[in-house]
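In the previous lecture we treated proteins in isolation. Real proteins rarely work alone, and many bind small molecules. This record shows how such a complex is specified: first the sequence, then the SMILES for flavin mononucleotide.
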Amino acid sequence: MPCFIRKVIAILSLFCFSCCYADITLPTPQTRDGMSLFASLKKRSSTPGGGFPVGQVADDELSTVLWAASGLNRGKNGWTVPMANGNSPYVRIYVAGEKGTFLYEWEGHYLKEINNKDIRADIGLQNFTKRAAYSLIFVSDARAFTDINPEQITNFSYTAVGAMSQNAYLAATALKLSTRYIHSIKPDVIIQELELPEGSKPLGMLLLGK
Ligand SMILES: Cc1cc2nc3c(=O)[nH]c(=O)nc-3n(C[C@H](O)[C@H](O)[C@H](O)COP(=O)(O)O)c2cc1C
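The predicted 3D structure, ligand included, written as tokens:
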């Protein structure tokens, strides 16, 4: 192959690479050892907002909390949280951190990049929320409801957020991370920043820090 063609291909691949979104493979979540469920239940609490720590959360810790919140735990159709009619999770978790915003894909257990903006300071009504290493944003995904009465979507979605956030609280406690559920969010900003499709509704978020 002539040299100049090789150079053109190299330049084109570099261009493509810089345009591509950078998905993140998550480490295998922790599924054994560590603090017992009952010890975690005894310790679970919300970290006070005013003293929320600014420390980094490691990838394996984030991975474990996300898996606890809505990961697969039984083959290809079983999740750590119950979903109506056995549907796949119709509340999705978006992860906002310093490096950008991502969608947690339980199938494949990875983070799909949405943008490379740090939106943490823009999405909560309380100032302290920006200090958390990660905000896990719960978003109801209307497209994922295949066989559910539309009137039930909101109820079922909030029920899912309860289960998901409690699992995340317990996993975070077991990992000695700080966490706090936040309902006071800015849905309009989130819809815009996450480029959410029609029918998606931000419901709340969980701060994660150390
Ligand atoms: C539905 C719900 C909404 C909440 N919204 C907020 C909020 O917007 N801001 C906040 O600082 N804490 C919020 N919290 C955290 C509660 O204030 C906290 O869970 C409560 O004070 C009890 O403390 P504990 O979790 O340590 O038991 C919320 C909790 C729940 C369950």
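Summary for your notes: Strands lie at 24-25, 91-97, 100-105, 110-115, 134-141, 178-182, 200-209. Residues 45-46, 49, 126, 180-184 surround flavin mononucleotide (CB under 6 Å).
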